[in-house]
Amino acid sequence: SNARPDTMASNSKRDIQKQAIEQILKNAEKNLGELCTTLASYTRKTAKLRDKVDLLVATLIDFSHTEDPEFQIGLKNLAEDLALVQDYRHAQVERLETKVVTPLKAYGDIIKNKRKFTADLNREQKELQKLEKTRLSNPADRQKIAEVNAQKASANAQRSIKQIEETITDFQRQKLEDVKKVFREFITVEMLFHTKALEVFSQTYGNMEVMDAEKDMEFHSNLRHQGGMDGELEQEEATKDEEEESETEMEQDEHIRQSFAVQYAQTTRKHN
Amino acid sequence: SNARPDTMASNSKRDIQKQAIEQILKNAEKNLGELCTTLASYTRKTAKLRDKVDLLVATLIDFSHTEDPEFQIGLKNLAEDLALVQDYRHAQVERLETKVVTPLKAYGDIIKNKRKFTADLNREQKELQKLEKTRLSNPADRQKIAEVNAQKASANAQRSIKQIEETITDFQRQKLEDVKKVFREFITVEMLFHTKALEVFSQTYGNMEVMDAEKDMEFHSNLRHQGGMDGELEQEEATKDEEEESETEMEQDEHIRQSFAVQYAQTTRKHN
């Protein structure tokens, strides 16, 4: 061959670089693809958890309707707070989708474009080699032309190596920055949810603590003893009075012992 | 009928009470059954979420192996911290099972026993009514015996009402106390998990922040330029030196920038 040793070295280095970038793209495709699939599945499972607690909320509200005032308020408050936490979980799901899953999904296209770019470089390179061969087959002033062409080919090969190196470096840098960004978003979204859930539940716990079964026992016992054995009509009226009285009590009670969710909604309304 | 008016009233009130307790047991069976099913399902979905993040941890560790030192450490640390949060989630799942789902499951048996108790009371009552009838059919000193028996039946009915009332009250009180306890446990278990997750992730976030893609770019560029174009053997040796050097660097780096999980494990080991 008439090509100079550094051109040969360049071509050999170019092949190594080609293999390297192919390996890097293959790894990225595999790793980012798996991250995307797993995080998308995590997001879906989180949404299912939200739906399950929404079902628990509905069950608690049904339950509260069969209970006396104290537990009726207590269970309703619990349900409202659980529902509020699910609002935060819903925000978590939406943020995971837009800030974590979607950017990772985009990597399929990014890798496809990089592959196209390196394929273009390879095709260009092959055309130049072909051109060099054609000129070498020309017998006139063969040695001189060969020298010039070999220099051109060498410079070309060097430029091509530099381009591929830059492509690798750019892709790697961008990939690492993007992976870092995606997981910073992931951690932020998770922390935000945990913080909000903690904020709500610490209030809910306080509300649960003051729920007093004895109050409902007394409420029921009063109903029974005021009604007494003096005929149904009188008993019914007594029950009605008691109910009216207890509704006022409930309203007062409700004013004092609101769910965190309702207090939160009122604060938000005030601010808007 | 020879029964006195208050006995009739007692019997009528007893029927109302019987209906009431039947309704209470029916509601409890439905409400606590639904709570149990929903919370068991929530627990299973939480376990699935744990499994999904465990898969993410494995993917991150695979990923870290294809990266240069800076991101290799960064991704490994992230994986370890995510794994630690899943340990907490596993504890959450186990606590939900023993402290929330199991006590609610026990309600099926509690309600069955209450039903048996009221069925026993009813049978007893019917036997006494039968006995009264037999005695009334005896013609000798009919009026007097009837009086005595009616008094007995009335006292009996009153006692029976009292027993049923107590049964209702005890069951209701116990049910409310148990529901309160179960949800206090639920909130506690959830809060514990959120607190721990927040503790880990705030450290993880700090570790993510210092991950610097440029360091890996420089690491790679050094590898390339030290190797230069001076033949493969020399390049390989340079790479080997570089790798040895970088391993030492990595060890140092690792010492400084450990995952929260590893720091946590070391602290725990020290305390034990």
TrEMBL record, chains A, B:
Localisation per UniProt entry: Cytoplasm, Cytoskeleton, Microtubule organizing center, Centrosome, Centriole
A single Gene Ontology CC term: ciliary transition zone
Any matching Pfam family: FAM92
Classification via InterPro entries: AH/BAR_dom_sf, CBAR/FAM92
Biased composition range(s): Acidic residues: 231-252
Region (Disordered): 224-258
Highest taxon, organism lineage: Eukaryota
Protein's GO biological process: cilium assembly
Alphabetical keyword list: Coiled coil
Chief location category: cytoplasm
Coiled coil feature spans: 114-174
Gene3D superfamilies: Arfaptin homology (AH) domain/BAR domain (1.20.1270.60)
PANTHER family for this protein: CBY1-INTERACTING BAR DOMAIN-CONTAINING PROTEIN 2, CBY1-INTERACTING BAR DOMAIN-CONTAINING PROTEIN HOMOLOG
Protein name: Family with sequence similarity 92 member A1
Originating species: Fundulus heteroclitus
